[in-house]
Amino acid sequence: MGQTEPVELVTIEDIEQAAARIRAFVLRTPLLPAPWAGDDERPLWIKPENLQSIGAFKVRGAFNAIGRLDESVRTRGVVAYSSGNHAQAVAYAAAVYAIPAHIVMPEETPAVKVAATRGHGARVVLCGAGQRERVAAEVVEETGGVLIPPFDHPDIIAGQGTIGLEIAEDLPTVDTVLVPVSGGGLASGIGTAVKALCPSARVIGVEPELAADTAQAFRVGHRVDWSIEDRNRTIADGLRSQPSELTFTHLQNVLDEVVTVTEDQIRSAVAELVFRAHLVAEPSGAVALAAYRAMDFPPGRTVVIVSGGNVEPALLREILAG
Amino acid sequence: MGQTEPVELVTIEDIEQAAARIRAFVLRTPLLPAPWAGDDERPLWIKPENLQSIGAFKVRGAFNAIGRLDESVRTRGVVAYSSGNHAQAVAYAAAVYAIPAHIVMPEETPAVKVAATRGHGARVVLCGAGQRERVAAEVVEETGGVLIPPFDHPDIIAGQGTIGLEIAEDLPTVDTVLVPVSGGGLASGIGTAVKALCPSARVIGVEPELAADTAQAFRVGHRVDWSIEDRNRTIADGLRSQPSELTFTHLQNVLDEVVTVTEDQIRSAVAELVFRAHLVAEPSGAVALAAYRAMDFPPGRTVVIVSGGNVEPALLREILAG
């Protein structure tokens, strides 16, 4: 009878060590009070990870994973596959460490993102649709570099968890944290930190209803697979991944529930962040505020994670045009 | 022979006391590294005052001025005249102190700004064009409230100066600080703090070339008066005031020079802040980045102040449409 290995959970100590490791490289984002939200029952704070210099939280995990490598291994370089913020994060962290980075990107990646990744000095390897994991494995083989996965690794989870550490430091009386869920690295890390330091706080995952595999998984008690065609329907292009066994186990352990938001709610949240918070969020970065506005959770001091700001100019124009 | 009283300059001790006074009420903004600027000779940091909960630095001066009042005086309330960020700042600070606020606004003020001011619980007194100082004096007479001027007061200068204190704390090796100039309270305060703590740093004022009275004043050595019709031509509606004797004396003391930027440069800087820094700035808040891009100053570690983010939605749409 096949038995799976028990998953070893990331601990608060792992996250505290990650915080010390990445401190010199990553912005310690402020927690922004948002009295303009106008909801006395749910006073709001924003954690603006879009202000990281590459525009997303992904630098935290990337710096922790690369910083953890033995120097003799690290100098061989790193490999990642991503068309999004993880590509930029690994390329940027590798540049800071002055090591080679090889980033595998699908051929259909927008030219501006390929150029941004190359701009950090990374080598970009273009590949056909659905080929990126295989091509990345080949690049690892050829170069001897270390694969830095986007979410399925304890060092990535611990790095993203430093956001939760900072929330607990800045607002120890927090009642609710709303966090986007895709591959689950961000929510696993934040949930682990918040539950350890503020045990009475709720941590709620947020998904687009068009990519709500984890919300469904929570209802049925095990991971479910949505087709990539289905997940690709959402405007929130950073939330089209699904948890791994490692992250799903964490999510079951630390999330109180997973809620969903509509595409219209996401668009409205992007516009609200622009005009009220003066922050530019990508759609994936705005889902937590969208859930806050849906108000489907108990009152109390509420924090929303704005996870990233790398929105396509044409899409932002369209959203702001209403 | 008429002699003017010598102006007493705000000191670094005044600014340090202001910092302690406002700490509980005002966001301690981070200094954001901006490697995306891509200029190795002038590495860039952004001081994002648009992240204050009312969207602008003006809360610093307002909280310092109101916090300095004797409690028996403060409870009578405060009076301000402004159609812009100072109105919101005084209304917000008065609400936090739970005292009455009477804000005199011109009849042509956009309804959204009147509503926002009332939203903080302030009483709005509308007045005819050019009447606001006279009407404010009447309101002071009627209510016994204290007038909180937008820039022409040492407590306002000291409050805005806390921004310079934070820059010196976060980047003691700063070489150049670029700061918008209008009435001059912000530049006076920041310049005083930076020159005291980082004496070798340059502090450069920035004006729209369509409202460049201070740039001209620096050339001729005394204040000059531009007509309000001329100053109203710039899109940067927060930069249409002129220094008072008090602020101009400070500016002469602490600014190395005053440079100007064109309307097109201002618009480009607003768009760059949106897409690269993920920050929404109003045109007045983007002039320092515009001056950075014009590169008319020596190399070195450079900080630009993004002073505010309260841009009209229609104007932001127009700017982003290019």
From TrEMBL, chains A, B:
GO molecular function: ATP binding; L-serine ammonia-lyase activity; magnesium ion binding; pyridoxal phosphate binding; serine racemase activity; threonine deaminase activity; threonine racemase activity
Protein name in UniProt: threonine ammonia-lyase
Any coiled-coil regions, as ranges: none
SUPFAM superfamilies on file: Tryptophan synthase beta subunit-like PLP-dependent enzymes (SSF53686)
Function in brief: Catalyzes the anaerobic formation of alpha-ketobutyrate and ammonia from threonine in a two-step reaction. The first step involved a dehydration of threonine and a production of enamine intermediates (aminocrotonate), which tautomerizes to its imine form (iminobutyrate). Both intermediates are unstable and short-lived. The second step is the nonenzymatic hydrolysis of the enamine/imine intermediates to form 2-ketobutyrate and free ammonia. In the low water environment of the cell, the second step is accelerated by RidA.
EC nos: 4.3.1.19
Catalytic reactions on record: L-threonine = 2-oxobutanoate + NH4(+)
InterPro entries: TrpB-like_PALP, TrpB-like_PALP_sf
Class in the EC hierarchy, top level: lyase
Segments forming domain Tryptophan synthase beta chain-like PALP: 25-308
Required cofactor names: pyridoxal 5'-phosphate
Family assignment from sequence similarity: Belongs to the serine/threonine dehydratase family.
PANTHER family referenced in this protein's UniProt entry, alphabetically: SERINE / THREONINE RACEMASE FAMILY MEMBER, SERINE RACEMASE
Annotated organism of origin: Mycolicibacterium rutilum
GO biological processes: D-serine biosynthetic process
Keywords assigned: Lyase, Pyridoxal phosphate
